Structure formats: structure tokens, C-alpha cells
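User: Run a structure prediction on this.
Assistant: Running it now.
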Amino acid sequence: MSSSAPDAPAGTSSAPDTPAGTPSAPDTAAGTSPERSRIVHDLIDGARARRPRALGRLISLVENNSPVLREAMELMAPDTGHAHVVGITGSPGVGKSTITSALITELRARGQSVGVLAVDPSSPFSGGAVLGDRIRMQKHALDPEVYIRSMATRGHLGGLSAAAPQALRVFDTAGFDTVIVETVGVGQSEVEITRTADTILVLNAPGMGDSIQAAKAGILEIADIFVVNKADRDGTQQLIRELRNMVALAHFAPEDWKPPIVKTVASAGEGVPELVDEIAAHRTHAEKTAAWQARRLARARAEVEALALGVVRQRFLARGEDHFEAIAADVRDGRIDPYAAADLVLADL
């Protein structure tokens, strides 16, 4: 499903929307700067009231890198840092969307509000999200305490969209208790979720031939909790033994969190309450050991670094290819070394 699809039911979104009575394009509004500032304030007020259209519009501003995004982020900054961000990753076919839907059900039963950022591969034609994982979550569509948004990767590697960190700030502004980030089906090196989530669930399923192979490249090393989904299938116990052996090979200090292994049949809701208990236990442990703030500091550092490098890249591209041809020719002909050439480029920027 494309991110430009028609408006979804209440509680879900895939299209840029605005609150009732708000101009539809604050980033391109023809009005004065004060007028655009008023629109941004209205959108953020709408997000704080958890109005789906305001949330959708703000996330669209993030995705499109709108000129008013800086002002929006400045206004949202005091609201951020409260939601528990739970990342869900794993190979394709292990049931990430089904687990996400089951977690929403259990968290809502416990009185929590839930936001979901489902990152999908991009359509090669429109650039929008093509899987539309929220299709599997439609039973939550009318719940005002649930908001689901699909976001396309737009070619960004690592299992997430480059705009995901800023989109999470929108969810935080809305005051959701838990925000679930569902990655695309990751391979052996796509572990960017470690820079985004407070608690990371790595899903496996019996009969998936690459589940343990992925561990050799490090994907299972990022787990705070291992989830063996589709545990009613043959091979479940063998998979659990393999995971336990891998955990046993890792070195843990006495105060470290040791990843538990939780069996689930998400389609039937089995094991999901136990999984939510482990998620809460991980948060409690992280807060007691200062790992919580350390991970969030690393997340903020990575976000600032990515934005700064993005600005440098934009300035580089804005100068045009011709601008650097003379420097490139000097490197080609040996008149200057590439390090010195890079220094010249950076000085020029």
C-alpha cells in the first residue's frame, strides 16, 4: 500500500493529513512566515490532542524534510523522551506484523496508549510504502488510543527510514505510552534499530533456515528479548536450544541484562502477556542500571550526526558536479592526494 493512499480509518494513517480547518500544505503555504508559524503551532496542538490528521501531517513534514520542520522540532523538543520505544525486527516471514498487532491488544488491555511506526520497503514507482503492514492491524483502527503509520524506507538501508528518529518525536509529542517500531524484513547487517529503540525484540520462527545464520553476522546480538514466534510448529524446541547456546556464549557482567527467550503464537495471542511482562522488566532493569539513559544518549548522538552529515551532503550536491571536476582531475593526474582534495572540498563547503 502506498503512503499516498486514501485516508485510513481513525487510528491509522498512510497519507499526509491536516486537522480540520487547517490549510493542507504548511510547507508550501503562500502566506507570510507568521502565517506558516501559526499553521505549525496548530498542527502540534493537534498532535498533542492526538488527532490523527495532525499526526499524519507532521510525519509527512518529516518525510518530506519540509522547510518548517526545524520550527516544528523546536516546539516538540520539550515533549520528547517519555514514550517507551519498542523495536521489532527479524527475518521476513517470522510474523513481525502479527506480533505487533498482538502487542497492541495486550498493551491496550493494560491501559496503555500505543503508537506504531511500520517501516515498509519503498515502491519503485511512487516511493511510497508498498506492504502496508497496518492491513494486519485493522482491528485497532477505530481505537482513539492507537495510531498506526506506515513509512517507506525510500532506499535507506538498515531496516528503517532515515526519517524514523524525527517521526518518533511526533509520537512522543502525542503522549503515547509505548511506540512500536516495526522494521522491514532485515538481513544480516541491517541493525539500525539499535539506534532507535529502548527495547529490541528479535523475532525468530522454527523452519526459517536463515534465522541462526543471521546470528553469525550479528543480528541476534542486538536482542534485548528473543521471541520464538509460531511456536506451535515443529522445530521450536531445537530453535530455543540454539538460541540458548548462543546466549550462553556471550559474556555478561553480573549487572547486565541477559536476554530472555519468549515463546509466542501471536496469531492466537499465546505468550503475548509474558512478552509484555519481559518488555516491562527490561525497562525497569535499564532504568536501574543507567543503561536506559545511556542508550537514549547514543540515540540522540546518532540523530544529530545523521542530520549534520545530511546538511553537508546537501551542500555538496548543491554546488553541482562541475564545481569539483578540477579537484577531481588533480587527484586523477596525481597533482594532489585525495585527502588534501577532501580538505579543499570541506573548506569550500
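The CA atoms of residues 50 and 174 lie 5 Å apart.
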